[in-house]
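Fold it.
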Amino acid sequence: MNQAWHIGVIGGSGLAAGIGLEDAQQIEVASPFGLPSGAVTTGTLGGVRFTFLPRHGVGHAIPPGSVNYRANIDVLKRCGVTDLVAVSAIGSLNSAMAPGHFVAVDQFIDRTQARDNSFFGPGLVAHVSLADPVCPRLNASLAEAVRQEKAIVHQGGCYIAIEGPQFSTRAESKLYQSWGADVIGMTAMPEVRLAREAELPYGLLGMVTDYDSWRDVDDGVDASEVMQVMARNTDLARNVLHRFAALLPKRRVASPIDQALDHAVMTAADARDPVLVAKLQAVAGRVLG
């Protein structure tokens, strides 16, 4: 069934001030999973509904490990978004992916350890497929939008998510390279997994700010240099999202990800925790009844 697009955008460090929405309204949305990173801002880009949430809150006050990823995804689902786009700063582990480039990430390695990484749990068990974690049509449109802005984009790349907030040692950086990771960041996990549990197609556009710490000719990652690259790319990222909105078809054709929970819930109906079922009404109400 075709429907209207409603794009949720989770902005990282370089988009804290928003994405330039028309007819913007800021709304506080509550979640049973706790406080999200902040209020959402909803409006339009080129006639397409967008809802924006700053991942690190106002003034970048929330470090990566303290972001309430579950609440963020839950409130965007409650807002009625159909698809999610994340825009994030990343470090490069691949010499071809230079600072200033963009990467439409398509695979992930999760090295986070201390985060709530699922909406489900004791009393309501579910396992979603994550073999192909991003939505190919979102990523293809994001990559094309970057090309239309005459910037360099790599369509595909493996993102390793580390706990943070920290930069890698040289030994860690070279280890991650040996695993096949192309870029590194601190926020994509569990965000992408939670989006899949919420049946929201997810695309990630990474802005390369630095080479990580694997190049012996460099001094390593410096936060001030990262911020300089992000500042230069912020307007470009906003322009890319405007291009992306224009590239979307007039109506949204259903995605297989819209039914990601069809065969994922393992717990029998009469054994489910009613408290958790109630908390999951926005995320999984379609299959929980």
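The helical segments are 69-78, 136-148, 170-178, 188-197, 223-247, 274-279, 281-288.
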